[in-house]
Amino acid sequence: MTVIEALGQKAKQASRDLLDLGTAEKNRVLLQTAAALIRDSEGILAENAKDLAKAKEHGISSVMEDRLRLTDQRIGAMAEGLRQVTDLQDPIGQVIQGFTNLDGLKIVQKRVPMGVIGMIFESRPNVSVDAFSLAFKTNNAIILRGGRDAINSNKALVQVLRQTLVDAGHNPDVVQLVEDTSHAVAEDLMQATDYVDLLIPRGGVRLIQTVKAKAKVPVIETGVGNVHIYVDKTADLEMATKIVINAKTQRPSVCNAAESLVVHQDVAVEFLPKLAAAIKEVHPVQFRADDRALPLMPEALPASSEDFATEFLDYIMSVKVVDSLQGAIDWINTYTTHHSESIITQDITAAEAFQDQVDAAAVYVNASTRFTDGFVFGLGAEIGISTQKIHARGPMGLEALTSTKFYINGQGQIRG
Question: PANTHER family given for it (predicted)?
C-alpha cells in the first residue's frame, strides 16, 4: 500500500465520521485548537527555526524567507483566524431550494461536504491551519502536502491540530500531513481518485501548471497572480503613487501583490519619474520598462517579453505605456492570470468599462490589489483564491468547500 493510499483510506473514514458533527461541536473544537496553538507556540517556533536555518543554507531570498517565517504575532493571527471561522455561518445542511413537483415528490436541495480535500501548497506554514479550519467547519477531511522547506513547521502545526481532535474525542485523521515531500508522492496525491474529491494547489506558476498537467482528481486552479495596476489619464497621481507603492512593496511575496504597471501615455511623463523617486523611500524596486517608459525611469532595465508575463514575488515590476484605456484593457487581458487587477481613474465611465471588460476574479477601482483576501471579503480564512470560473472564483471560503445533494421524498410514486 502506498503512502497516499494509506492516508486516503484514513481520510475517507474520517470524512464519514464527520457527517453528523453539528455546528456547536465544530466551533468548540476550533476554539480549543486556537488555544492550543498559543499554548504550544514555543515548540512551533522552534521547529520553524529549523526550516529557516535550512532555507538560509540554500540561499533563499529574504522575500521568500518572509513567506516561511512564523512569529508569535503570526501564530496569534492563525489562532484569531480559527476564532473568526467559528463566527461564520455554517453552510452544511443549508437548504438552497425546496418544492413539491407535479408528481407529488418533495424535493429539497441542500449543501453537503465535499468529502476529502487534498491541498498541495508551498512555503507558508499558516496554510495548514487555515485549510484545516475551513475543511473542518464544512465537515470535510483534509490531506495536506506542504513543501519540503516548511516540513518541520507543518509537522508541528498538524500535530497540534491532531492532538486537539483527540482531546476533543474525534478522529485525528480528519487532518493528515504527507510527510514524504518527494514529487512522486505528490503526484500520487494528484491522481488519488479513489480517495480525494477535490484537489487545491496553492503556490507558484510551476506548481499550478504541474498539478493541472498531472492531476486526475478534480482541481481548482488558484493563486498565480500576475497582477496589474493601470494608471488612467484622469488618475489622481498622488493616489496612484500611494496605491502602487502599497500594492508592490507592502508584502511582495503574496499572490495579490502588484507585478505589472500599465500607464496611459498622457500621464506617463509626469507619473513615472514621480513614482520611481517615491518608491525608493519605501523600498527599492527594480523596474523593467518598455521602450516608452525606459527614458522616464533612469534606473529601470529594458523589459523582455517574459517580464510582462511573470509573477516575480519580489521587488521587481514590469512597466508598460499604452495609448488608451482600451489598449490597457487589451494588454491586461493578454497577460492576466485572472487574479486581481486595478484601475486608478477619476472617470466613472472608464472605471465601469475596466471592471466590465477585464477578465479577473477581483477588479478594483482606486484601491490596492492587496485587499484580495478571504478575511477582507468577509469569508473568514480562505483556502485559496480561485482564478478559474467553474465552481468557485476569487477568495474561497466555506461555501466553496461544499457540494449539493437532492433529497427526494415520496409516497410510493412511480414514473409512467
Answer: DELTA-1-PYRROLINE-5-CARBOXYLATE SYNTHASE (PTHR11063:SF8), GLUTAMATE SEMIALDEHYDE DEHYDROGENASE (PTHR11063)
Distances (CA, A) of 90 to 21, 83, 86, 142, 198: 11, 14, 9, 18, 20
SS3 call for 366? coil
Which pLDDT does position 55 carry in this prediction? 86
Phi, psi angle pair for 75, to nearest 5°: -65, -40
Q: How far apart are CA 237 and CA 267, in angstroms?
A: 8
CA distance 54 to 134: 30
The four Cα atoms 48, 53, 58, 62 give a dihedral, to 10 degrees, of 70
Q: How far apart are CA 219 and CA 202, in angstroms?
A: 11
Beta-bridge partners for 145: 120
C-alpha cell at 151: 516540513
Cα(129)–Cα(81) distance, integer angstroms: 9
Q: Using CB atoms within 10 Å of the CB of residue 13, give its burial: 0 to 12 exposed, 13 to 18 middle, 19+ buried.
A: middle
Mean pLDDT of the 74-96 span: 95
Tally of CB atoms within 10 A around 216: 12
pLDDT, tens digit, 9 for 90 and up, residues 8-22? 999 999 999 999 999
pLDDT interval class at 260 (50, 70, 90): very high
Across-strand partners of 344? 231
Three cell numbers, residue 305: 517579453
Q: Measured between alpha carbons, how far is 301 from 295 in angstroms, rounded to an integer?
A: 10
Tens digits of residue pLDDT in 182-210: 999 999 999 999 999 999 998 888 888 89
Read off the pTM.
0.87
Amino acid at 76: G
- Output the nine-digit C-alpha cell for 107: 424535493
Scanning 191-264, the segments in alpha helix (DSSP H) are 205-214, 237-249
**DSSP assignment of 135-148, as one string?**
HHHTT-EEEEE--G
Quick one: pLDDT at residue 60? Answer: 81
Residue 381 has pLDDT above 80, yes or no: no
Separation of CA 324 from chain center: 32
Q: How confident is the model over 75-99, as a mean pLDDT?
A: 95
